[in-house]
Amino acid sequence: MNSRFDLHRIIDIDKWHKLQDSLSLVTRMAIITVDYKGVPVTKHSHCQAFCQAVRQDDALSSYCQKCDARGGLEAVRTNKPYVYKCHFGIIDIAIPIIIDNQYIGAIMAGQIKLRDSDLPLEQIVTRPANAETDRKFKALKNEYRSLPILSSEEVSTIAEMLFHLCNYIVEEAIHKNATIDMYRKTLSLEPTNTTTSIPPAAPAYEHLQAMQNELSSTLIDTKIQKSMANAYRSSNLTLQPAFDYIYRHKRENVHLRDMANLCHVSPSYFSRIFTRETGENFSVFVPRLKIEWAKQLLETTDLSVNQISDEMGFADPGYFIKTFKKFESLTPAVYRKIYIKHD
């Protein structure tokens, strides 16, 4: 299996490993990242003592490698996190990183035990009965007992969170690299005939337009970095993909049903837990957030009210002004004048 993407080129491995360490602490799971060949690109984050001892044993480590290989293949085949039992009955998760239908690597997480049995899990590798193995397991009984214990719901939620988070980070890194490459190529373009006034080729123009749009979005994000710095971190991990999407797609009119689908829950359940999480209905939270972003642009840019309305994804400037006035009790133009006067 070949991939046109290389994790080493796409992401900063050192920074990625720091994030991996943090995710490991939050989820209480050991985590390691591998490339599409199964070769580790990071060190193990918080590998459990029991698993460390087993993986250092020549006879037992081969079974661990078989578990990793089989788990990774199942995750790629299903294109979603694959939760399974290793040869010692410990819970592991293989989380594929797939960009543009290309498998570029995986996050291997787990080394935990289940508190319940709600997940119908397969033990993908079985060891034959062996007295020596039994003796080694008894010697590591205390380490085995100290493995973290999570519920089936917690495992499923963490698996989905890691899947969405890791794929988003890698995809954003790819887009960033592509924009930089496009910019460099554009700078290197030279006219083939300086004596004529033939316009540039359509592809070059389209590349410039794409780059301009990308850079424009980046500038807008920079201008409202104060709001982005306080991006919503949900206490309910089920909702986090929705919050991540809302904060990344400021120009879109996001709908409750779409966000519910993104979080893999029903619209009614999504609405209920969203209101419980934020204290506001979805229909109030999103426009209020957009108005907060709009205020940042009014304060820090010379963009017109019409332009800001477009940037925030409103159907028309009139509706934007009406919504702004609903939350701030004044129009965007008046708000800007007051801010400039006090500034």
TrEMBL record:
Q: Does the keyword Transcription regulation apply?
A: yes
Please give the Gene Ontology molecular function terms for this protein: DNA-binding transcription factor activity; sequence-specific DNA binding
Sorted keywords for this record are: DNA-binding, Transcription, Transcription regulation
Q: Which PROSITE patterns match?
A: HTH_ARAC_FAMILY_1 (PS00041), HTH_ARAC_FAMILY_2 (PS01124)
Lineage top rank: taxon: Bacteria
Its transmembrane ranges are: none
Q: Does the keyword Cytoplasm apply?
A: no
Q: Which InterPro entries match?
A: Homeodomain-like_sf (IPR009057), HTH_AraC (IPR018060), HTH_AraC-typ_CS (IPR018062), PocR_dom (IPR018771)
Residues annotated as domain HTH araC/xylS-type: 240-338
Pfam families, A to Z = HTH_18, PocR
PANTHER family from the xrefs? ARAC-FAMILY TRANSCRIPTIONAL REGULATOR, HTH-TYPE TRANSCRIPTIONAL ACTIVATOR RHAS
Q: Can you name this protein?
A: AraC family transcriptional regulator
* Organism of derivation: Paenibacillus azoreducens
- Upper classification of the organism: Bacteria, Bacillati, Bacillota, Bacilli, Bacillales
